[in-house]
Amino acid sequence: MEEHLNKTSRRDILPVIYEYLLIILPVSIYISLEAMHKHDWTYFFKSPEWGIAIIFLSFQGVALYLKSLSSTNKKINHNFIGLLFLIVVVVTIAAILNSFISLDYKENNFMKISIRITLLFISSASFFILVLSGKKNELNKKNE
């Protein structure tokens, strides 16, 4: 039984990683091209374009979670969904503000970059948690 669960878990995590890379790779490739063009690899870390990835990860994580929940026909806790969307709005506003104040990348300081990295970590972690828990709900529905 545990071996079956491990195989299923590995099989279910690959689409989640694919979705994550589908969001992160285009942004990171664009930022890399900009850094090469500017001949300044510090731009990769200072770029305000990371805010785009943060926003996409936040919205896509919740969207994929809701899609998984709707396919299981489970009762949806609207208070929890409302809380998720509130968190997404807060993260989105924080990412937009951080990107706006970081538009002059030469004036980026440690604090602005740290906030951006923290927001990227939060949105990445929540993306994986939400999407994997949605996959787990789908798996439990199939096993019933």
Structure description:
The protein is built from 5 helices and no strands. It is mainly α. It has one domain (2-143). Helix 1 (2-38) runs antiparallel to helix 5, helix 3 (50-72) runs antiparallel to helix 4 and helix 3 (50-72) runs parallel beside helix 5. The two termini are 15 Å apart. The mean pLDDT is 86.
Largest sheet, strands/sense/barrel = none
List how many beta strands DSSP finds.
0
Tally of separate domains: 1
| Whole-number mean pLDDT | 86
> Level of helix content?
over 70%
Ends apart, CA distance between termini: 15 Å
What class do helices, strands and sheet pairing give?
A: mainly alpha
In what range is the share of β-strand residues? under 5%
Order of helices and strands: HHHHH
Characterize the overall form. elongated
Structural Rg: 18 Å
The parts where pLDDT drops under 50 for at least 5 residues are none
Instruction: Report the total helices.
Output: 5
